[in-house]
């Protein structure tokens, strides 16, 4: 996220990539305008929230017209820094890490995993999905944080904090944490935590306790 849009609330900012992906699809299918109702149906966010979100960045839909797709697209590109590729490092090339290296993220985003680290000698020195894997001992030496400001952590949780401390020392900007560990970082570093087991458990809990999905809408 660039720094020209400090007034956008965080909850709104988190929805931007979702909107962006859909607007990209609309744009490539040649659509020129979209209503908040259509957007709402596609991204499963209620239309009042969409209108409020869009009002923060000056996209004021007109009644009976909707929003201009090109305007939205250029706004999202600029705001999400999508004109430039953001390079990402991945640490921990286990099952999940390997899946990310093979998937990479170029299809939907301009983020790319450029470099990976592991401690397993069998993995070090190999390349998966075009991404070279180095030994974690070489982290500081190999990782140019001006070029690679973001790291994905897919290591065992016992290793997560130690690696985070090294990344913090090297002044990484953001960490996407897939381990169950809660990470301590200085306030200058942003951590987003995705605990897949907890998310799955929570989904199952909601299915059991709120079988009618419309009872509880997640953010
Ligand atoms: P696998 O089946 O390959 O072990 P996994 O996802 O089940 O995958 P984990 O034990 O979660 O395995 O480890 C994930 C990856 O993190 C493995 O490739 C492991 O070698 C690596 N790893 C373990 N400790 C560290 C560490 N301190 N630094 C970097 N990578 C590590």
Automatic annotation (TrEMBL):
Chain ranges of the CoA-binding domain: 81-182
InterPro entries per record: CoA-bd (IPR003781), NAD(P)-bd_dom_sf (IPR036291), Rex_bacilli-type (IPR058203), Rex_DNA-bd_C_dom (IPR009718), Tscrpt_rep_Rex (IPR022876), WH-like_DNA-bd_sf (IPR036388), WH_DNA-bd_sf (IPR036390)
UniProt main location, coarse: cytoplasm
UniProtKB keywords: Cytoplasm, DNA-binding, NAD, Repressor, Transcription, Transcription regulation
Entry annotated with the keyword Transcription regulation: yes
SUPFAM superfamilies: NAD(P)-binding Rossmann-fold domains, Winged helix' DNA-binding domain
DNA-binding region location: 18-57
This protein's record includes keyword NAD: yes
Subcellular localization: Cytoplasm
UniProt-listed Pfam families: CoA_binding, Put_DNA-bind_N
Binding-site residues, NAD(+): 92-97
Record function comment: Modulates transcription in response to changes in cellular NADH/NAD(+) redox state.
Assembly with partners or alone: Homodimer.
Family to which this protein belongs: Belongs to the transcriptional regulatory Rex family.
Annotated protein name in UniProt: Redox-sensing transcriptional repressor Rex
Organism lineage: Bacteria, Bacillati, Bacillota, Bacilli, Bacillales
Gene expressing this chain: rex
